[in-house]
Structure formats: structure tokens, C-alpha cells
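Long-time lurker, first post. I've been practising inverse folding by hand and with some scripts of my own, and I keep getting stuck on stretches where the C-alpha cells seem ambiguous. Below is the full C-alpha cell string for one chain I'm working on. Before anyone asks, I'm not after the true native sequence, just a reasonable design that respects the backbone. If someone could post their per-position residues I'd love to compare against what I wrote down in my notebook.
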């Protein structure tokens, strides 16, 4: 994979990863419009749309962190959320704040990290837990410093439509046909909108250097 060290390469990586996903979702939309509707197609659509939801959010977040890793930025110049991510690599075991020695270690690691270049393992930092509900998505937004208000109107749809029915189907649970049809009709456009918005927000953050304490 090409090293993501510039905005143009970040844009290219995001574009390529999103394009094939949107193509498959659009093909599913076409198949779901066949009359009479086929339940197996609609159930498959929910599973695949979820896969693209989780897959793109996870990959896009990793692409952004890889971009930041390659900017050679000092942690002290970055927003606090990125300093927190950087510090995570220093604390692999549980820290007990009640112990003075642990508090001293936290302070030492913090002071040391301020003058270090930002560097995280993007594959370990971004974790969807194979269940990208709104709570997990909010955490990813917080980690990346992306405002939640751009997405919050869709949080209920994510939990009560996409995740609820994806999990039910994946676990072999029965749901009324009319509910399956309704869910597919709602999520097939909303998820594409969310993926587009996430793509857009990452590029805006990179272009406007929102990762810095003093940005454009």
C-alpha cells in the first residue's frame, strides 16, 4: 500500500476504499427493487451494508492516523485527543492512580511525550469490536477529533435499524418480512450518506490542520 504522507494520498486512499463499497451498495439497492421482493436479497443487503459501514469507518480512521504519523508532528503541538492516543502506547498494563509511583509514572510519560513525535499503531488504536454501534462510532470520532454533531441525527438509525437487524440476522433470529423490507429501504441511503460525511470530515480535518492546537 502507498505510504499516506500527504493530503492527496489520503484523499486517494479514501476515494478508492469508498468507491467500491458504494458500487456494491448501489448494486444491492437495484437487486432489492426487484418485484416481487426477495427476502434473501434483503437480508443479505443488511449484512453487506453493515460490513461496508464498519469496513470503511475502520479503514478511513486508520488512513487518517497513518497520515498524521507521517507528518512528524510534536505531540505538544497537537490537540489533546492525539496526545491521549500517543500516551496509550506507554500504558499497556492497568494504571492505579491511587499509587504514588503510578502517578509519578503518568507525569513522567506525559512530560516525555510532549516533546516526542506523534506516533501510534493505527491498527491497534482503532477498534470497532466487530460491532460498530453509535457508542463505538462516537469514540472513534472523539479519538480523531471529529465533531459528533455532523452525525448525531443518524445514531438512532445505526443502533435501532442497522445493528439491531444485522445482529438478529447474523444470529439466525426471525424478524417479520415487512420489518426487513422497511429497514433496507431506510439504511441503504443513510449509510452511504454517513460514509460520505465521514470521508468529507477527515479531509476537512487534514486540510484545515484541525489536529493542531493552533489550526487554520
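-- Answer (accepted) --
I ran through it position by position. Result:
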Amino acid at each position: 500500500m502507498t505510504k499516506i504522507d500527504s493530503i492527496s494520498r489520503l484523499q486517494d486512499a479514501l476515494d478508492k476504499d469508498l468507491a467500491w463499497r458504494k458500487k456494491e451498495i448501489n448494486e444491492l439497492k437495484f437487486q432489492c427493487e426487484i418485484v416481487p421482493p426477495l427476502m434473501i436479497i434483503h437480508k443479505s443487503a443488511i449484512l453487506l451494508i453493515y460490513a461496508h459501514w464498519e469496513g470503511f469507518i475502520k479503514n478511513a480512521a486508520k488512513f487518517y492516523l497513518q497520515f498524521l504519523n507521517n507528518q512528524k508532528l510534536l505531540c505538544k503541538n497537537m490537540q489533546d485527543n492525539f496526545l491521549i492516543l500517543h500516551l496509550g502506547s506507554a500504558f499497556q498494563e492497568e494504571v492505579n492512580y491511587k499509587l504514588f509511583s503510578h502517578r509519578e509514572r503518568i507525569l513522567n510519560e506525559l512530560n516525555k511525550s510532549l516533546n516526542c513525535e506523534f506516533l501510534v499503531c493505527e491498527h491497534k488504536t482503532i477498534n470497532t469490536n466487530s460491532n460498530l454501534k453509535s457508542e463505538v462510532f462516537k469514540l472513534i470520532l472523539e479519538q480523531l477529533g471529529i465533531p459528533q454533531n455532523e452525525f448525531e441525527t443518524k445514531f438512532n438509525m445505526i443502533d435501532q435499524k442497522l445493528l439491531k437487524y444485522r445482529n438478529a440476522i447474523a444470529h439466525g433470529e426471525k424478524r417479520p418480512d415487512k420489518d426487513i423490507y422497511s429497514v433496507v429501504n431506510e439504511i441503504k441511503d443513510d449509510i452511504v450518506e454517513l460514509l460520505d460525511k465521514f470521508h468529507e470530515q477527515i479531509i476537512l480535518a487534514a486540510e484545515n490542520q484541525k489536529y493542531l492546537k493552533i489550526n487554520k
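A couple of notes from the structure itself: The mean pLDDT is 88. The two ends are 30 Å apart (CA to CA). Happy to go over any region you disagree with.
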